[in-house]
Amino acid sequence: MSHHPSSGKRRLKDLLAQPDNRTCADCGTPDPKWASANIGVFICLKCCGIHRSLGTHISKVLSVTLDEWSEEEVDSMIEVGGNGSANSIYEAYIPQGVSKPGPDASHEVRAKFIRAKYESQEFLKPSLRILSSSSKQPSLQASLSKKIMDSFGHSGSSENSEGMVEFIGMLKAKVLRGANLAVRDMLSSDPYVVLTLGHQKAQTSVVKSNLNPVWNEELMLSVPQNYGVIKLQVFDHDTFSADDIMGEAEIDIQSMITSATAFGDPEMFGNMQIGKWLKSGDNALLEDSTVNIVDGKVKQFVSLKLQNVESGEMYLELEWIPLDH
């Protein structure tokens, strides 16, 4: 690919900045963070869940901020021109009695509208109906980031809608930095972090020769109904031999999810503490870790002492994103 990967991101950001792309194409929620690359619309998290259930042959969902986009995917978004032009096609004729869902619409209302709009294409200009289904480019390979796809059990078979039920939300883990990490090479180490939850793994980039690395990288994990702890491991990247482990720690996400669930929609509340994971002799916390509502989001700052290693600390910020059913 001739383009620098960031140029695609920049073109996408420019497109997202246009006025009609600042709200979800399907329900009008402000500041949509997801997109359907083959349809060419920007959508919110709640509508994104329904787009996923349509299957990638109808809608290929990507995160604007977290996923890697190919040039083709960016091109196809730009070709459509965003929400205004897509809706002028997909919502050309909304019949009397059918109204578009709003940001507070229920899952059922949203699902019914989105299926009618894209799957059965009930609101298209009649002349376009046949055309549009054949012009969906099958060549756009399934672009939903593989990790999320795997975690949703999307094997492309008919069971994908049942596969989704097992997930209660997403966890955005921002790996901030490490401190006083162990030396694993001659004088330093080339650390990277791996987070594991269930069958999913997510990892940061490698920081060269640094025992106090700063990552500030966001990793996404889908949280299954029967979630366990998140396993954090720090490795030293070695070009010529197996990567050495530089300590590990477990992150208990139960206090966060339990308190978030108890409070419901965090946007209804001001900034406040809603829960706490307490430091104890049998966990890796350096200090109590509070769960807070910050600007309408549920967040938790975690500072960990790495275990099974001579030294090292890790600092992360977790954010809980429920899948609203």
TrEMBL record:
Keyword Zinc-finger tagged: yes
Pfam families noted in UniProt: ArfGap (PF01412), C2 (PF00168)
Domain C2: 151-266
Keyword Calcium set for record: yes
Organism: Sesamum indicum (Oriental sesame)
SUPFAM superfamilies listed in its UniProt record: ArfGap/RecO-like zinc finger, C2 domain (Calcium/lipid-binding domain, CaLB)
Protein name per its UniProtKB record: ADP-ribosylation factor GTPase-activating protein AGD12-like
Arf-GAP domain segment(s): 9-137
Keywords from the UniProt entry: Calcium, GTPase activation, Metal-binding, Zinc, Zinc-finger
GO molecular function: GTPase activator activity; phospholipid binding; zinc ion binding
